[in-house]
Amino acid sequence: MVDNAADATLLIRTSCPHCASVAEAVLRLTKMGKLGRLELINLDLRPEPAQALGVRSVPWLKLGRFELVGARSFHELEDWAEHAAAGSGWPEYLLALLSEQQLTRVIALLREHPQHLSDLLDRMTNEQLEMGARIGISAVVEELAETPALRACVPQLIELTLSAYPQTRADACHFLGLAGDPTAAAAVRRLLQDESEDVREIAVETLAVLDGSDDLEESTGC
To answer: InterPro entries in the record, alphabetically (predicted)?
Structure first.
């Protein structure tokens, strides 16, 4: 039993092929003490919550602060219940939303909880991070360009320019340009001598944004 177990709300429809298995799973988690309270609503009989919550498909589960849509296994829901109870799991949740093409939802969440942008950027240090996830993170940062949330991450991005992984250095450099903080110019200028041609090229582009230089290509020695 988890002392600070999360509460859950599950919306279903009678005709939904996946709703029964999800309902069974969350009921089991409630009996195990991994959920503190479960509210189960059949939208065929009580349609009002769907409109109030903006729900368009079921099963729809609000588990703590996570919203999960569609079929989920018991073990997957158990993991989310544990994350919800511990207040963890935000990077995994945001990446899961990005994999489901829910960029707008991710942006809305990060505008509401900007501290989780740092958690997402931390995932860039993983060399095994799928390219789709990297593209998703890039899309998020582009949407948050020059916002206080992204500028707050400038020290973290500067640290990421020291990564042993060229793709991470390149991404971090590009993101520093999107942050638009001229104090990052010194860190970016160091990348003009990077061993990776791609990183050097992005450094030139980023410095052009940060300090408006038109002659940077000559300083690279390329």
So the answer is: ARM-like (IPR011989), ARM-type_fold (IPR016024), Thioredoxin-like_sf (IPR036249)
